[in-house]
């Protein structure tokens, strides 16, 4: 079973949303995890915008990177430059992708403007996870 690990700084927003989409779109054929360099807690805006897509991430928890899981991953996806730059060493066999997305938790403005930034980032993550799922499906079809 392939293993994907989504990483960002605090495992509060972007990596949590990516985990939620991946669990839905990659299904039971993949082991999906997320973590951060630190654990900042699950951002309630992330939970809210994912619920708008019918995905409940409210039971997910903010976690720090588990080195054993990192070493066993087939794919690591970093969602911010901080995670990309500070991610611990992995074997050359571990494929890495970087999705440079703005941190929606850093958004300023009215609550509606902040919520819209979370939606924008959520939608960008969904597009990328859908492409990842399509790529995985194509690889399975070729085998």
TrEMBL record:
Biological-process GO terms, alphabetical: response to arsenic-containing substance
Protein name: Arsenate reductase (Thioredoxin)
Phosphotyrosine protein phosphatase I domain span: 2-135
InterPro entries, sorted: Arsenate_reductase_ArsC (IPR014064), Ptyr_pPase (IPR023485), Ptyr_pPase_sf (IPR036196)
Swiss-Prot/TrEMBL keywords: Arsenical resistance, Cytoplasm, Disulfide bond, Oxidoreductase, Redox-active center
Gene name as annotated: arsC
Lineage: Bacteria, Bacillati, Bacillota, Bacilli, Lactobacillales
Coiled-coil parts of chain: none
Domain of life: Bacteria
Pfam families, A to Z: LMWPc
Alphabetized GO MF terms: arsenate reductase (thioredoxin) activity
EC nos: 1.20.4.4
């Amino acid at each position: 079973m392939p293993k994907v690990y989504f990483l960002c700084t605090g495992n509060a927003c972007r990596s949590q949303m990516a985990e939620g989409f991946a669990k839905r779109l990659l299904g039971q054929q993949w082991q999906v995890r997320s973590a951060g360099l630190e654990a900042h807690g699950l951002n309630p805006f992330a939970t809210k915008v994912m619920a708008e897509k019918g995905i409940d991430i409210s039971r997910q928890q903010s976690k720090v990177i588990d080195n054993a899981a990192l070493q066993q991953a087939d794919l690591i996806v970093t969602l911010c430059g901080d995670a990309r730059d500070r991610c611990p060493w992995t074997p050359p066999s571990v494929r890495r992708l970087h999705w440079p997305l703005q941190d929606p938790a850093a958004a300023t403005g009215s609550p509606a403007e902040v919520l819209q930034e979370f939606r924008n980032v959520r939608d960008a993550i969904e597009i990328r996870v859908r492409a990842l799922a399509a790529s995985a499906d194509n690889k399975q079809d070729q085998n």
